[in-house]
Amino acid sequence: MKKTNTLTRLTIEKFRNVAPTTLEFRPGINVLLGRNATGKTTLLRLLSMLLDVPGEPLQDEPLSASWRVMGRILDFEQTTSRVRVEAPALPLEPGGTPERGSLPGLQYSGALRFEQDGDEVLRAELLPTELVLHHAGSSTREARHSSSPPITSIIASLWRNQGEASLELTSKLLHSRIRTSGRLDEGLDRFNETNRLNPEPDRHTARLSNLKLFFKRAGEEVSHEELSHGQKRLLAFFAHVDASPDLVISDELANGLHHEWISVCLDEIGERQAILTSQNPLLLDFLRFGGIEEVRRTFILCERMGSAANPRLIWRNLSEDEAGSFFLAYRTGLQRVSDILRTQGLE
């Protein structure tokens, strides 16, 4: 059995000013490349939101997207759509006529398909007000609350309709989701929040604040307030990785870190999947590749096209030609990864 759940694909049909695209990810380290204002942080936030990490502000934005996860037990594909709709405004007084105009809102719909060894285990249709489950040759339909996470709605429906008979399946569904604590910011926000997440299904989230941490060694005691910027970043990263058993999402990982600490961070990630940004070439030089396809999936280029008044964000994997050219240069061992990317205009 695989040790982690892995995000393999993200398709964006409609989101802000992003051109429709399909992005592929590899197990292990993935890196977003691009200049400032090309949407790298936005893409990390979008991933966090789609994976149901609480607190992401993108929850209230229209979009249409799908993604696929290769799981430890089940594989699944999920689609989601949030469309802006106009609802009639309510009257100000009982019995009165509605006010002119309307109230904007989001209408949610989506679908999930779970598979084991290529065979469908369960399929769910999440309509604006209904949940339809297809399982074991039968279908059930019931009302749903659009504010509930899809997996929560599905498990609640299984329990209502099948009771204890659904325990094995609901356990598989819970363990198929990607466990991540979302995006680690590029500064010290996470460190200052002292926010500790426990993503396991049977554990609660603990939010702690106003903590005082002390670090001791022979003859010396240091408060967390006396740590350097880099030390605080490192401490926050360790806590972040510990709370992200499957997927580590980090913005500007190398910010403020000595090159030896970057190596320690990558070692800490271990067998987890990671999606990172870094304008520091030191991180890139730690990457290793076994073939062209691995290169193609590792890097995602973020570009900004169009005019200043009407910009268009382009997010894409490397092309086969770009990945092949990179791997040929990489295999000679004469240039560092960051130098190859710079030489070939892929930064």
From TrEMBL:
Residues 29-285 form the ATPase AAA-type core domain. PANTHER family: ATP/GTP PHOSPHATASE, EXCINUCLEASE ATPASE SUBUNIT. This is AAA family ATPase. It comes from Corallococcus macrosporus.
